[in-house]
Amino acid sequence: MNYWLLKSEPTSFSINKLSSLPRQKDIWDGVRNYQARNFLKQMEVGDLAFFYHSSCDIPGIAGLVKITRANVVDPTQFDPQSDYYDPKSTPDNPRWITVEVQFVKKINPILSLTALKNIKKLHDWALLKQGNRLSVLPVTPLQWQIIMVKIEAV
DNA sequence: GCCAACGTTGGC
DNA sequence: GCCAACGTTGGC
């Protein structure tokens, strides 16, 4: 079982939105970065992920989600109406693979980026490195545990 | 295969 | 809105 972090701008998709869906599940579509996609491909059913809110008032970890389907072909790549349409991708050889996630819980209050930066043991984490823009990141079991302790201490 | 130009991300 | 950092594109 592995751990991950998934970034989203809450104005386009948020933990509240996910939790309000009838099945509390959604396809994590729209990732168009190869490094991020390669991490998505490694995800397995049962893996857990932090739901991170970026580009907002208080960026940080806003919830937990579980991977409920792996190796899902992102349908938006074939939709000419979609912002994520990729004319170079074909159904025979789809370029963009993702996962389905299910709501687990909200982190309230959000565990802010500022708070994460204050945890010394996390300094090596890619999320906190300068200039990091990757929207899908691995989390080691140790990092996961450190963050969960912080969340539960609130 | 190099690299300049350009676009995007994301914190502040 | 600014800007640094990074990825991608495309000419050569």
Give a written overview of the molecule.
With 154 residues, the chain is α+β, with helices and mostly antiparallel strands. Helices cover 21% and strands 32% of the residues. It is built from 4 helices and 6 strands. The chain has helices spanning 15-20, 34-42, 113-117, 141-153, and strands at residues 3-8, 25-27, 48-53, 60-73, 97-112, 136-139. A 6-stranded mixed β-sheet has the order 2-5-4-3-1-6. A hairpin with a 6-residue loop joins strand 3 and strand 4 (60-73). It is globular, with a radius of gyration of 15 Å. The chain starts with a strand and ends with a helix. The mean pLDDT is 94. The structure holds a DNA duplex (12 and 12 nucleotides).
Question: What attributes characterize this protein structure?
Answer:
single chain; alpha+beta; six-stranded mixed sheet; 6 strands; 32% strand; globular; DNA-binding
Biggest sheet descriptor: 6 strands, mixed
Strand order of the largest sheet: 2-5-4-3-1-6
List the uncertain runs: none
Question: What is the helix fraction of residues, given as a range?
Answer: 10-25%
Report the order of strands and helices. Answer: EHEHEEEHEH
**Proportion of residues in β-strands:** 25-35%
Intertermini distance: 26 Å
Q: Overall 3D geometry?
A: globular
What's this entry about, in short?
The protein is of the alpha+beta class and 154 residues long.
SSE diagram, text form:
Layout: E1 3-8, H1 15-20, E2 25-27, H2 34-42, E3 48-53, E4 60-73, E5 97-112, H3 113-117, E6 136-139, H4 141-153
The structure holds a DNA duplex (12 and 12 nucleotides).
